[in-house]
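JOB MANIFEST
job_type = single_chain_structure
chain_count = 1
residues = 209
[input]
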Amino acid sequence: MKIVIIGASGHGKVAFDALKTMNGIAIAGFIDDAFEKQGKKILAVPVLGNIDFLMEELQETIDGVFVAIGNNYIRKKITERVSKQFTLVNAIHSKAIISEYASLGKGVLVVAGAIINSGSKISDGVIINTGATIDHDNFIGEYSHIAPGAHLAGNVTVGQMTFIGMGSSIIQNVAIGSNVTIGAGSVVIKDLPDNCLAVGVPAKIKKRF
């Protein structure tokens, strides 16, 4: 399958690494709206043009896309646009461990060292970053981001568009709402509602959106 990666920044490089380990994937190049990146090479692969160029000129030559944008809202917006014309692929590093009894949606990134255990469901557009662990029977909502080194115990539920910060821990049976940000290094021991920022050990709500 011939694909392009949308996003030619750091997150795009991480996705590139994951995709390079997958069988049957040929990366034709990057797509990025930043004018200064177009025509240059990232990891020896060309930046072909912007999203308009992808939609108008590459429909016949590209089979699929991976949206490598770290910001949850921008990733969702771009995915919704390009999915009308292109197949969304997953980027799963060969050194991630994923149970055969877990399920993944579309446009999911799982980075090296990540673990997803039995019974967990990872929704569309989710990022499971470097070394993050998702234990049994978790649910991760659409376009959420589990940052490097975050650890979720069993039966944790995470809503849509939520960011679980680097090195944070979520104990078992906790439900975290949508549009929530968990600060780096926090320990979440009780449920959190939608639209809030929580930080600390134990995590406490510091702001509501």
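[summary]
The domain at 2-89 is CATH 3.40.50.20 (Rossmann fold).
The chain has a mean pLDDT of 98.
exit_status = 0
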